[in-house]
Structure formats: C-alpha cells, structure tokens
Specification:
- This protein has about 80 residues and is an all-alpha fold.
- It has one domain.
- Helices cover about 70% and strands about 0% of the residues.
- It is built from 4 helices and no strands.
- The protein has helices at about 5-15, 25-30, 35-45, 55-75.
- Helix 2 (about 25-30) packs across helix 3 (about 35-45).
Length: about 80
C-alpha cells in the first residue's frame, strides 16, 4: 500500500468517529506516545509516512477496547 493510500485509508476509516474520540488519550494509553504522534500518523507526517501494519492492528485493538468500555458504561445506565 502506498503512503498516500495508507494515510487516506486510516483517516477515512476513522472519519465517522474522528471528532468524538480523544486521540491524545488513545496515543498515550495504547501506544505510549505523545498526542502529536497520532496526529502525525493520521497525516503521514512521520518518518514512516503513516501507520505501520503493526500500528494499524494496535489501533484496531485500542478502538475495540474502547468500544467495550463504552458499552459496559452504557449498560450501567
């Protein structure tokens, strides 16, 4: 996958939730990185040109974990 395709794909895939998620928290909790790191990944402005395959899988698992936590919270209401 080219850098442009990868960047567009990840950003497009999260476009429905991009303004609702605190990406800085995802970056810190699941990647141990700064808030700017994840935004640079979304824009492809890092040395790798975006998310690596391992980082994409980690992001996928992070979002699944967040979804479970939100669902558990909603069930308590």
């Amino acid at each position: 996958m080219s850098t442009l395709q990868e960047k567009t794909t990840v950003k497009n895939l999260v476009s429905d939730i991009i303004v609702d998620v605190v990406w800085a928290n995802i970056s810190k909790k699941y990647f141990g990185r700064s808030r700017s790191w994840i935004y640079h990944k979304f824009e492809g402005r890092d040395s790798k040109g975006g998310f690596t395959e391992d980082e994409r899988l980690n992001l996928k698992e992070a979002l699944k974990d967040l979804a479970k936590r939100i669902d558990a919270c909603a069930e308590k209401l």
